[in-house]
Amino acid sequence: MEGLDKAKSMGKIPLVAVVGPTASGKTRLAVDLALQFHGEVVSADSKQIYRYMSIGTAAPTEAEKKGIPHHLLQFLDPDQPFSVADYVALAKTVIQQIHARGNLPVVVGGTGLYVHSLLDNVTFFDAKGDPALRRELETIAQQKGGQYLLDQLAKVDPPLANALHPNDLGRIIRGIEAYRLTGIPLSEQKKASRQNPPPYECCVIGLNFRDRQTLYRRIDQRVEQMMADGLLDEIQNLIRFGYSQTAAQAIGYKEFFDYLDGKCPLEEAVQHVQQESRRYAKRQLTWFRRDKRVNWLYIDDYDGYNDLIRQAVSLVRSQLDRMSAQA
Prior knowledge:
The protein is an alpha/beta fold. It folds into two domains: about 1-120 and about 200-325, P-loop containing nucleotide triphosphate hydrolases (Rossmann fold); about 130-190, Histone, subunit A (Orthogonal Bundle), CATH 1.10.20.140. The chain is about 55% helix and about 10% strand. The chain is built from 16 helices and six strands. It has a six-stranded parallel beta sheet with strand order 3-2-4-1-5-6, sandwiched between helices. The protein is globular and about 65 Å long.
């Protein structure tokens, strides 16, 4: 605790982040680190923000929380819109509050865009999309072609236009839309979004396995446990409450729609969930491997969980000690 007390006197907020693929044990590690360092957990999961989706999103139970306060969990109805900009704004406020209470924020989750945008202090320009303008630009593209729109973009945002091909219609339209709505070229917005240094001193811990098949077995077992815990009932309740559109976009939910419509057997739907979850884990690992801040802990390198948590505690303590030495 001495290192944390000294770190608090510095300008930056000490923060721990636990990242990695689904079913790697992030929640357990984050909770135990919070217990060790007087912390509070901040979720960085884009599906656990929703109510009524506890089983399919593997939201932590009260027993798994071990009395540690958790934030940004299950606070929205599934039909409410929520963006990465919304997440960063809320998470920054929550982290400041945790820090003000003298506690250590422990961010945990596998949504890479949430984690990256928060830790890198990405600034989002206040420009809501304009569906009417987007439809207008899409109509122009159909009538006059992508090159015409790209030429229009080049008049207001040459750097972005030079990086695009006439077939990149989505990005061309987004560039024109951003300029029309803000008066600032999207290329300038992206540069400005990273000009403010992050207010955090981070210790980022990533969980993974040397043996990829071990991770895949854990994913398959988790899906089987979700089924035993009542995942199908949860999905049917979402449909009954009118939240089928949100469920249809989430792994672990959308794969059962064909089964519920009588188009495939239950066993096939379960296997599809397992397959899509494994693919998602690969995408998560690809994302987090790009971040050089991540200290990777390979779970199968350790004799047991106690050895793993000792190494994680050592990493956090070293980071806090470095901060206190600089204070």
